[in-house]
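Friendly challenge for the regulars: who can give me the structure tokens for this chain first? No prize, just bragging rights.
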Amino acid sequence: MDEESPSSRKSNEIEHKVYARVGLLGNPSDVYYGRTISFSLANFWATVKLQPSHHLIITPHPTHDLVQFSGLDHLVNRLQSEGYYGGVRLLMSICKVFYNYCNENNIELSKENFTLSYDTNIPRQTGLSGSSAIVCAALNCLLDFYKVRHLVKVEIRPDLILSAEKELGIIAGLQDRVAQVYGGLVYMDFNKDHMEKLGHGVYTPMDTSLLPPLQLIYAENPSDSGKVHSTVQKRWLDGDEFIVSSMAEVADLALQGQTAILEKDYSKLADLMNRNFDLRRSMFGDDALGSLNIEMVEVARRVGAASKFTGSGGAVVVFCPDGPPQVKLLEDACKEAGFVIQPVKVVPSYLNEDDLKTLPG
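First reply, four minutes later:
Bragging rights claimed.
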């Protein structure tokens, strides 16, 4: 049997790009049957390429999956700054979850093989959902390669992505994955009845043009945000009255935020963003949030801007209600504090015709 020519293989290549995401309101209540509003952030993204091949190959990234070092000091420094894990494990996990889902749902897959590779420019540990962006892009490649996009409903794809991450011990909620599957600006309701009856939340895309100009602040060397949920989740499960009522209020901020955005009531939006962070801080405590993360929020507040975490720490989303002069003050303050600041670019929804056919109604 003749080997495919390189040019022929190239023409069969599938590539998907998935963007970082910003939790605008309601996080982290998605883990607690709450509500959130999130959007896709065009500033950063992950790409996954799939190419037909004789064997199934997961290609390590030359930077993120480094296994060759100049010496022990290089290896140790690398582990201290980047951790043990790159993206290969993410690609392997979504392959397993996708295969099992198709098996369980009688979706027949061809016997063809492929090579998967990835790249990303999403800064690490910034709460911008870098891991789930890689997983989501890989899932999109698999859906297209096996031509089953119309058989896997858009609404359940976030659950598949989350399952792949849970396989690896990554603790997270659904909102990031919903934002990255849908693209654009999405209001999400994770009401317990919906979740138990449907197996997913109720997701409502919104018009991205309704958003005011926003800023993104992040630290070059953020502290790890992975331990933030730990004690709060246990207290919530134990019925701690303060945590249960506070988390319900956080969820209500997203509901109010949906109305504020639809009505372009941006002063209300600013109040809701600030309240979101204050509630998170009162529940989690300063030690869990980390002094660097708190300082990013405070830098914005000192110039009169509204600010909150984009996720569980590492970056904040900021709204300057007084416009460009206030943004300039914020840029100067960030420069002095050593933080990176960028204008937020929002990605419109990127669901295609096949995706839309799987949505209800």
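The chain has a mean pLDDT of 90. The beta strands are 14-25, 35-53, 57-58, 113-120, 185-189, 202-206, 215-218, 306-309, 315-319, 340-343. Your move, everyone else.
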